[in-house]
Amino acid sequence: QECTIDSKESCSENDTHQKYKKEINEKYNKYLAAVTNAEQEFVECNRTNCGCFSNVIARDLKPFQEKGISHELINAAKVSGATLYQIIKGRLYRETDCMFPSRCAGIEHFILKVIDKLPDMELIINTRDYPQSSKYYGNMLPVFSFSKTPEYFDILYPAWSFWEGGPAISLYPRGLGRWDQHRVTINEASEKYPWEEKESLAFFRGSRTSSERDNLILLSRNEPSLVDAQYTKNQAWKSDKDTLDAPPAKELSLEEHCKYKYLFNYRGVAASFRHKHLFLCRSLVFHVGNEWTEFYYKAMKPWIHYIPVPKDANQRELKDLILFAKENDGLAKKIANHGRDFIWGKLQLSDITCYWKKLLSSYAKLLSYRPTLDKNLVEIKKK
Ligand SMILES: O=c1ccn([C@@H]2O[C@H](COP(=O)(O)OP(=O)(O)O[C@H]3O[C@H](CO)[C@@H](O)[C@H](O)[C@H]3O)[C@@H](O)[C@H]2O)c(=O)[nH]1
To answer: Residue 67 contacts by C-beta under 8 Å, 6 or more apart in sequence?
Structure first.
C-alpha cells in the first residue's frame, strides 16, 4: 500500500511528513495561481451611477423583456409573504398588511427617497428570506427578493436591513440595521485593531441557520488555537442540540469581530447580512459558497476581495486555507484591505438609493399596461 496522508499505515513518520509537505505545497501553489489569475482579470468597477451593480439589474430583468410584465403576471406573483406596492403620481401605496412590518419599513425608506423621480408602476416585494420564483417549477414571476441563487428568477433588491428590520439578537434588540451607523462604528473598531495587532485566529459567531457552518465549528473544537467558531442562540433555539451539542456561546458585537484576522461568512436561510459588515473590520473574509447572493456580491471578486471557500469544504480544507493565509500574511492583508475598500467606497447608503432608483426605473419600462390606483391600498408617507 502506498503511503498517503489519508492512509498512514504504511508510512514511516518521515514519509508522512514529506507527503504532507508535498500536498500542502501543491495546494498553496494552486491558491497562489488562482490569485495571479484573478489579479490579471480584475478590472476595478466605476461607482458612478451605481455602475458596479448595473449588470445585476440587466440580468434579473432580462427574462421579462421579451413578453413584458402584464397585470395578470403581477396577480400571479402575489405569493405568500409578498406585498403589493404601487407608485402612482409620485406617491407610494401598499397593501395594509405586511408580513414583517419593520422589513417593509426598511424597504419603503429607500423607495420614498427617490419616489418623485419614478414613473407609475406596481410591483410585488417578497419580505421573506427565501426567493419565490423557481426556474424549475411554476411560472416565471416578477417577484422582488433580497437574495437568491442562480436557480431563481426573482429580481434582487437591496435588503431592508440597510436601514432597519434586520435579525434581532440580544445585542441588537431592535434588529440589525442602519448600515450608515454600522459603517462608522465598525470602521472605528478596525482602526482600534490594525492588521498587525489582530489575533491570528479564524472567527465565527452566529446561529445554526445552515448546517454548512458545522465543519468550521467542529474544526474550532478540535483546533482552538487556529479557529474560534461557536454557535449562538436564535429565536428557534430549544436545547444544546440546536447548537451542535454544546451550550450556546455568548454573542459578540460586529465591532468585536475586528479583533480577529480571519472572519468567516456563511449563508443562513438565504444570504447572511453579516457579509458586508465583516469586510469593514479590515480583516480577511473567508466567504463560503457562491450560490446565495445579494445584489452587490457579483461585483466582489474571489482572491481579490475575499478568500473563496467551497460550500462543502471539510475540516482539512478549511484548515489548509487558514494556514495558507497565515503563511502569506502580506497577501492576506492586501486582500483584506481590498475587500474593505470596496465595501467602504462602493457600498455607501447613497449607492443603495441609487440602485433602488435604477432598478425601479428599468423595471417600470417592462410593464405592458398603465397601472391605476387600487383603492384597497394605503398611502405610505415619509416619516
Ligand atoms: O454573536 C453574534 C451572533 C450574531 N451576530 C449577527 O447577527 C446576525 C444574525 O446572525 P445568525 O443568527 O447567524 O443569522 P444568519 O443566518 O446570519 O441570518 C438569518 O437571518 C437573516 C435575516 O432574517 C436571513 O436573511 C438569513 O438568511 C438567515 O439565515 C448576523 O448579522 C450576525 O453577524 C453578531 O453580530 N454576533
So the answer is: 368
**What pLDDT score was predicted for residue 22?**
87
Q: What is the model's pLDDT at position 20? A: 80
Question: Which one, of 283, 217, 293, lies nearest residue 255 by Cα?
Answer: 283
Q: What pLDDT shows up at residue 5?
A: 62
Helix (H) or strand (E) holding 108: helix 101-114
Tell me, in angstroms, the distance from the centre of ligand 1 to residue 262's CA.
Answer: 18
Residue 329 a catalytic site member: no
* 244 dihedral zone (left: phi>0; alpha: psi -120 to 50; beta): left
Per-residue model confidence (pLDDT) at position 311 = 97
Question: What are 289-300's pLDDT values in tens digits?
Answer: 999 999 999 999
- How remote is the CA of residue 268 from the centroid of ligand 1, in Å? 7
Q: What pLDDT does residue 2 have? A: 67
Best of 274, 276, 280 to mutate for ligand 1, by most ligand atoms within 8 A of CB? 274
Element (H, E) at 95: none
Q: Low-confidence residues of the chain, pLDDT below 50? A: none
The three cell numbers of residue 121 are 408602476
**Ligand 1 atom nearest to 278, measured from its CA:** 33
Ligand 1 centre and the CA of 206: distance in Å?
Answer: 6
ipTM greater than 0.85: yes
User: Whole-prediction pTM value?
Assistant: 0.95
**Catalytic site residue from 129, 154, 228, 351:** 129
Grid cell at residue 198: 489582530
- The residues with which 122 forms a beta bridge, in sequence order, are 86
- 225 near 250, Cβ under 8 Å? no
Which of 171, 207, 243, 278, when mutated, tests ligand 1's pocket best, judged by the most ligand atoms within 8 Å of its CB? 207
